Fold each of these.
Amino acid sequence: MKFGVSFASQPGLIDTAVEAEALGYDSVHFYDTPLVCADPYVVAALVAQRTERIPIFISVAIPYLRLPHVLATAAGTLNYLAPGRINLGIGTGYTGAQTTGSKPDTWAFVTEYVEAVRKLMAGEEAEYTIKGQRRIIKHLHPERGFVNVEDHVPIWIAATGPKGFGITAEIGEGLITISGGRRPKVEEWGPRIAEFHAASRAAGKGELPVKLLTAMAVRDPDEPLDSPRLMGFQGPWITSHLHGDLGKGSKDPNTPEIMHQAVAEYGKLRPGMRQDAPWLENHRGHSTFVRPDEAHVLSGELLGAVSQIGTAEELIEEVRALEAIGFEELVWQVIPGYEDEVARFAREVMAPYRAQVTVSG
């Protein structure tokens, strides 16, 4: 199993990304949500200049925010700074759209967009609709050191449901998915990954790699789930899911009942938000901090049902089980103020896990 860390893009976390490389993490990921965090391409560029090995992911780019040649040039510039280490995740832009009160992109739109971006990043011509008209576009000066079109930039697709998985099998080079409002369970994800791998094999790609974006925290043996540390570290992961549907909630049968209850409780906040632009209040703190008005929704039981929290030994067993069903990498979220958790996880989970794998291998 590989291990990565993800960030709500912020210049203040650059040192933590550099530390992640030194600690042996396998990737760093930066969110692309302009109204929530900093520009991920600027942050990634600074990380690229201060690291040597670690793959850098934009996870995930949102098509409607940038024309394909704008994204391809940004990625090509990063690829110039860190040749062969840049990866693009591309999705429908769920949170990025909701923070503007809009809907995510359609998969048809994403599919056409990915085709154009892939061609442009390879230095090829692409056809795309610009200002309402179909145009042939291409970067004109890659040979002059503006962008790197020689080193391949893999495109990963971010998806959570069957349709997205099918699209990924057709156009992606890997899948980035999310555990959502529940702790990832082998009995749920085993069949889903098997079905995805069957689709990618049918598309002639073999078994494409699968990364899981999740939340993980090492718990002391005598530490309660509602300890101030765990509530502060894991709370923003929980509330970000509540923000995602403005409290209306999902009917997914795999979502634990306590999460449904939390969704219902959070929904009571919506009438008090600005009626002309509720998203301005709804997404405050997203993946960063817990707002005072939403803190009462959280509980230790809820954290345990949604986040991967356990002692080091418990997490190692959980990692081993998730690897067995086909996850290639677990990518967990770093919350500002809890940067020291990156070293703790590496010390107490990553290192012992890898040592065990080496011995058993």
Amino acid sequence: MARAPPAYPDVEKVAAASSAPSLRTARLQTAQGAETVLFLLIMLLSGMVLSNLVEEKANKIIEILAAAIPMDAVFLGKLFAMLAVSLVGVAVWGTTGAAIVLAGGQDGMIAERLAALAPPGVGWPLFFGFGILYFTMGYLLLGSIFLAIGSLATTVREVQTMSMPVTMAQVLVFFLASLGLTETGGTLQWISILFPLSSPYAMLGQAAMDDDLWLHALAIGWQVIWVVAFIHFGAQLFRRRVMQSGPRRERRRLFARLRPQRD
């Protein structure tokens, strides 16, 4: 007599939408893309600060401003003015590019590619807000360094020569922030967050990877401190090298007054 086959319970297959490793890999692509866009925007737009300062030095406008208000305020106002111009330019060209895409009927393909990106850890609305904020901080950090360089240069050729090391260093800074993404919680990631020039890129990538918000508050405060320090250093450098004023010259004048006069 043949045995009846054993009865097995029905098995229901449920396809998982995503797993933790696949979600992390997808968010890593979103973070790398955001860092690349941020790097290109900052590098393309921050150079306007140098050319603007050299033109004002040639026309003696910067010296008139320095005689009227503190040099720190001049540099700070110049940075925020050029930042506003850059934001308006990004908005105008972004709107123009979107209009061209819509007119060409390619909006569906771009929408599919955007939909393929994993949502960032903080969500898309807050992620775009962080993108604007970290663009602002990155622009101010690099622009303040460019202002210090522009205070030492007198011609466009000197500006290009002196700014080339900073531009090459920014590429290394971008690589540092990109490598920090692949080492979550590691030493390299913390170095990229603490180093002021790479901090905006690293923190934008962090916003794509995780949903923690407390680290962003600390990072923004840290970046503001370095912006103030760079602006103050550039202003002091401008006073001593261009205006030829400062504590050293005042000290010499004081010693000259105290020195006994010869008959």
